[in-house]
Structure of HTH cro/C1-type domain-containing protein:
Amino acid sequence: MLLYNKRAIKIIRKSLKLTQQEMGNLLGVSRACFVTYENGRSKGKRNFFFERMLTEFGIDLRQPEDLRRIVFTDTSKIAQPVYQYLSELEIEEE
């Protein structure tokens, strides 16, 4: 089953030094909508959110639930130091 690790979203946002509002704006959703994804409570269309993360940041969140790494499809979409930090990180569920 493909799920996303909700902690990854918050870690990505904070690594990019973005507020929830700024991240929502970049992804084309409201702050309130973004917060539901970040908190793992979204009942909306996850495919849209996943596609926007892929397009904006080159990050594929559609991964097996037990994968504890952030998967990049395009490393040129974020700053190299942020990529390096995120790519080496092991993410645990809360």
In short: The CA atoms of residues 54 and 60 lie 5 Å apart.
